[in-house]
Write a structure and sequence with these properties.
Largest sheet: 8 strands, antiparallel, barrel
Order of helices and strands: HEEEEEEEE
Mean pLDDT: 80
CATH topology: Porin
Oligomer: single chain
Number of domains: 1
Strand content: over 45%
Number of helices: 1
Low-confidence stretches: 1-6, 8-25, 47-51
C-alpha cells in the first residue's frame, strides 16, 4: 500500500502534464495560498489495552495550511493538524502534528482540479489511562515521531480568490491508523 502511495502522485503528474488545458498554462508564476478547515476522522489504535485490546473513536479535528502553487500542476504546502482529545472509557488519546506535502493537480477546468498528495507528518501523542481507584495509579505515556501520509482531494474555485477543498488523508500516528475527511476554505493570492 505504501508503494501505491508513492507511485500514485508520480503517475498523476505524468498524465496531467500531457493533458494540461491551454487556460491553465496562462498562470504566470507561483501564487501563495492559506486557509484551514474542519475534518472528521476515524482512529484505530491497537496499542491500548482494554477488553478488546483496541481503541477506536471518531471525532472532529481542525487543520490549517499555507502553500505555494508553483504552476497549474504542482504545489507545496505545510501546516498543522489537531486531532483533539479522544476517549474510550478510562482511556484517553490526544494528538496533533505539523506536516509538509507535495500536491499534484489535474486542472480539468479553471475552477475544478482533483489532486493527489504525499507528505510527512511530524506528530505528538499523549495516552492516558485513568486510575481505577485510590490504590491503582494512572498510567500515561507520550511519544513523538513522523510518518509518511497520502491523500486525494478536489479543489473548487478560481484563483486568485476564495477556494474550497474537499479531501481525504490517510495517516499513521504511533501505529494508530487515522483516516480523515475534511472540508477546507483557502484564499489564493
Amino acid at each position: 500500500m505504501k508503494k501505491l502511495a508513492l507511485i500514485a502522485p508520480g503517475f498523476m503528474l505524468a498524465s496531467s502534464l500531457a493533458m494540461v488545458p491551454s487556460f491553465a498554462v496562462a498562470q504566470t508564476g507561483p501564487s501563495i495560498y492559506g486557509g484551514g478547515g474542519i475534518g472528521y476522522f476515524r482512529l484505530n489504535d491497537d496499542d491500548f489495552l482494554d477488553e478488546d485490546d483496541d481503541f477506536k473513536d471518531n471525532r472532529t479535528g481542525w487543520r490549517a495550511q499555507v502553500g505555494a502553487q508553483l504552476n497549474p500542476v504542482f504545489s507545496l504546502e505545510g501546516g498543522y493538524v489537531d486531532f483533539g482529545d479522544l476517549n474510550d472509557g478510562s482511556l484517553k488519546f490526544s494528538s496533533d502534528g505539523a506536516f509538509a506535502a507535495a500536491l499534484v493537480h489535474l486542472p480539468i477546468s479553471s475552477s475544478f482540479a482533483p489532486f493527489a498528495k504525499i507528505g510527512q507528518l511530524w506528530w505528538d501523542v499523549d495516552r492516558d489511562v485513568e486510575a481505577g481507584g485510590p490504590l491503582s495509579p494512572a498510567l500515561s505515556s507520550s511519544a513523538d515521531g513522523n510518518d509518511t501520509f497520502y491523500g486525494v482531494g478536489l479543489r473548487i474555485g478560481e484563483g486568485p480568490g476564495l477556494q474550497m477543498r474537499i479531501e481525504y488523508d490517510r495517516m499513521e500516528i504511533d501505529d494508530a491508523d487515522v483516516d480523515m475527511g475534511s472540508v477546507n476554505l483557502q484564499y489564493r493570492f
